[in-house]
Amino acid sequence: MRRTIETEAEMLALGESVALRCGRHGFIALYGDLGAGKTVFARGVARAFGIEHVSSPTFTIVCEYPTEPKLFHFDAYRLSDADELFAIGFQDYLAEDAMILMEWANLVPEALPAERLDVLIEGSGVNARTVAIEPHGKRYEEVFREDSCV
């Protein structure tokens, strides 16, 4: 499913809506160029958890939020490969009952779980964005059917 996003407020609302529809558990992989709105979308997801201040964990790789369930926000931008991600215990994060959000997921495709929700954001700057939501796995396909609204 594809959707046009005109404003930052719409991107925030979309992130929050997606997190709530996922049941605040799962894996959301974010794709898009610099300035596409991945972190704004992530702020919307965090808002569904009651978190108001979120920044991209570019230098720390992961931010852990002590919410219930937990929210883990990854940024793969500075990773050279998936081995670096696994070196910080990524498998342990995947085993948690939590929401995992990963910016720059395209840089570590071999680390992504087969069952996940891909959010592809096209556009940047002051222009409108096109957001495509692609579910992978039965759980996500049921929640994000083509005929459902996000």
**CATH domain class:** Alpha Beta
Level-2 CATH architecture:
3-Layer(aba) Sandwich
* Number of separate helices: 5
Mean pLDDT: 91
Please tell me how large the radius of gyration is: 14 Å
Estimate the strand proportion: 25-35%
CATH superfamily: P-loop containing nucleotide triphosphate hydrolases
Give the number of domains: 1
Note the gap between the termini. Answer: 9 Å
**Major β-sheet, in short?**
7 strands, mixed
From the spread of the alpha carbons, the general shape counts as globular
Describe the structure.
The chain has a 7-stranded mixed sheet with strand order 1-7-6-2-5-4-3. Helix 1 (8-21) packs across helix 2. The longest helix has 14 residues, at 8-21. Helix content is 29%, strand content 27%. It has helices spanning 8-21, 38-48, 82-87, 90-95, 138-143; strands at 2-5, 26-31, 62-65, 70-75, 98-103, 116-122, 129-136. The mean pLDDT is 91. The chain contains 5 helices and 7 strands. The chain has a single domain (4-143), classed as Rossmann fold (3-Layer(aba) Sandwich), CATH 3.40.50. It is globular. Strand 3 (62-65) and strand 4 (70-75) form a beta hairpin. The termini are close together. With 150 residues, the protein is of the alpha/beta class.
Topology:
Elements lengths: L1 E4 L2 H14 L4 E6 L6 H11 L13 E4 L4 E6 L6 H6 L2 H6 L2 E6 L12 E7 L6 E8 L1 H6 L7
Parallel strand pairs: 2-5, 2-6, 4-5
Antiparallel strand pairs: 1-7, 3-4, 6-7
